[in-house]
Amino acid sequence: MYIRRLQIQGLRSLDDVRIELAEGLHVLVGPNGAGKSSVLEAVYLLSHGRSFRSGAREALIQRGRDALSIYAEVAVTEDRTHRLGLGRQSGRWQAHIDGEAGHTIGELVAHCAAICFEPGSHALIAGAAEERRRYLDWGVFHVEHAFLMQWRRYQRALRQRNATLRAARVPDAAALEPWEAEMSRAGEAVEAARLTYVDRLRPHLERHLQNLLPELGAIRLEYRRGWTEERSLQDTLIERRERDAYRGHTAAGPHRADWALVFEHAPMREHLSRGQEKLCALGCMLAQGSLYAEEHGAWPIVCLDDLASELDQAHQRSVVQSLAGVRAQVLVTGTEAVSAMDGIEVNLFHVEQGAVTRR
Question: Which of 50, 177, 200, 357 is 20 to 30 A from residue 88's alpha carbon, by CA?
Fold first, then answer.
């Protein structure tokens, strides 16, 4: 999968950018604040429906403008290309696929797969569980598209159960039962899809992380599903009604799941340095990419933001060479050309004051 043409209007500092791309390595260089990361952010928005940066959604729109738009021609195979459009105006997203409006964000992102390593990626390892669930669920979604429907069913029932819990001082069993039954059906489906994906992901994680962090020894991925293994989700929800009513929210279920990487010589994540956290996050990204390629026959688009400041030269070169070898479309940003790419054919772009030009 790769982007042939990318057009961006009104995204942060990018006023009107049009770029022709191809397979292989692309390097975007320029001073800090020039808009390099925003190019990668545009690709990520098409793939995830959200930014990899923190902050309000309205901060995405360039100052002085009331809307942003992103358009990409995405080659899925040699003979199949999708025209994808994503816009935001008046606090709402609009999605277009092959010239047709009215599509959901979920339908749009199903046609574009991009993974990203950026300065905040270490939060995947050291941050909140929500980041790790998002990582996992993005991968599940691109293997099993029905997963999104089940997740939405679960979230809708979860909101209704929480509202019911807060509406009465004493839990109303009759009012809770239908929502708990729906949560159980959808939640068990979500859990089954996640477990299948985790099993497929494990060998890819082991391979990439042992390559990046051999000094930490053997690795295993531990997954916790969000409620006790000994009970069904429905039984757990019934048993926890009074405690959940006291708290005002549901404290068990797939929305509480988490996972962790456990190394032979670093059994707790607190044992990892910041540099090791970054390499773990990078390994997770590469593992997800190689599993995607195994399932779909081609790598997702790979975005590496500010690569030189995040990795030492040895790891930069290892990553670049491995990605060049699998013919992935790779977009790399930096204040200058990355020396790790010496001797490798690249497409070079210069970014300055929101303009992108090919060099």
Answer: 357
